[in-house]
Amino acid sequence: MRFPSIDILAARALAILKRFPWTIAAGAAVAAAAIVASKHHADESVLRIALVAALGLPLTIALTLTAEVRRWSPLLRTGSLLAGVGALLLFYLDWTGLNGQGDGVRYLQVTTALHLAVAFLPFVAMHQRVAFWQFNRRLFLGFLKSAIFSGVIFVGIAIALGALDKLFGVHVDGDLYLDIWFVTCFVVNTWIFLSTIPDDLEALAQDHEYPKGLKVFAQYILTPIAFVYLAILLVYLVKLVAGALWPNGWIAWLVGSVSVAGLLGYLLVEPLRSDEHEGWIRIYARWFFLGLIPAALMLLAAFWKRIEPYGLTEPRTVGLLLGIWLLGIAVLFSLRQESSIKLIPMTLSAMLLATLYGPLSVSRLSIQSQGRRFASMLASADTVRGPAEASAALRFLIDRRAEGEIADRIGKPMPKVEWSGIPRYGLARDTLGKQLMALVGKEYVEEGASRINRSYFSYSFEEGKAIAIDGFAWMGNVNAYDTTRHAIGPDSIQALAARDGIVRIVVGADTIGFDLHPLLQTWRDSLMLSRGVPMEAMRIPATVGKRSAALLLRSLDGRRAADSLILSHWDGRLLIR
Q: pTM of this prediction?
């Protein structure tokens, strides 16, 4: 076996660059943006750039291969790639990053659809089952090859740098390892993967090679695993029917596992279906897809059990759509075993893209569902569950900036709100929630709180804010755990054990009491585990004789018991003169 020379490798690398310049550029952009985003104090938008640029990898591969197969002119090819880049730019401007559950689901929809497009888009107008399968076989093996090769390259470089650092005293910045990882992952790995893509996709129709190792993997590993999973699911179905029970929510993981393993196994043995010596494949295909039908129905029932009382969210909506898609595929391939395997990636990709924007988008369906839940809970006669469920639905709508949906459900003029300044968690969101619930005369219930635990409270002030100390001479730190006497200017201070909601601090010969009842009454309806209470709201003044003082609380924890306040911890700064 002769190893290729450096010249041959360089020529091959250059040929790949000429064939996939847009993909290599996308990989370089991802690596550069990821390196910048990994540094301290990097702007959040840089991470968004990296994530959106990563979408360019599958998109440019799919468009480049489609242009080759259809023999597009250079102008049309460049125009399609520019249109793809423009679409990614529009997505970047609309997408706010991984700031919430809905944003993550939307990104997952796009990246999954684009990766699936690589598998089928070049073959949409081709009716070559053999070429389609051989192409995807090479993609699958090429992915494994590039992952192994690039992994070995990274480990080799990392060990070499470590040796220089430890053996020769050459300083190697720790961030350099992460930078090299990004370059290896998105540039080197991409380059290696592209080298495995055949130059002539149409010629694959004449390729009838079927690796023996692949058959062993599919026949003796994947298909037995799929059948074991199916058997477990069918036994579980019998248990549900016999006991008149609803399926457990965990069933989604098992159905997902059997679907992935079974469909992958089915796709891998596709060329052998016409071989009369491989009758087991036809038996496997028939029973696998028949078994998927009750599995998909159980998956839908499990999701519906959660959706019916709590409404749709983006993950639940996607799960419901995947269950419907899986049921459709199972029924189709059960009735027509000769259906093209291209339908599997094509229909899944189409469904994900069709529900990305518009009235049928995952986000829009979820917002409408939570709006109905919000209105229903407002009208509920259940005085315990109603406000809590309405508040949860309202938080969902606030997080999605669904001002129109909230206004429609409240039916009253909305206060002016700077929506861009409302974080997805924290006091500002809950303050807005209280205002909106007050418009309809309902109580707002904090996230994670209930009427059972409302006796507990925990507050802390906004970090990073300046402290006004005008009119005071000295400032000292005090807290519940330190009861020793400390010198502060000409006096001394000593914290005493708090009793009945009053913090007492001895200053010189005077004992000053700071009553926490007014503060806790002010924040009684605030978030139970509030972070970011305005600092001025945590300031408690007190006067004893001619001595003035103020306690600036940094944190406060405890519980209410009947008419008493029991403090478990407090911490703050004491201002005195």
A: 0.78
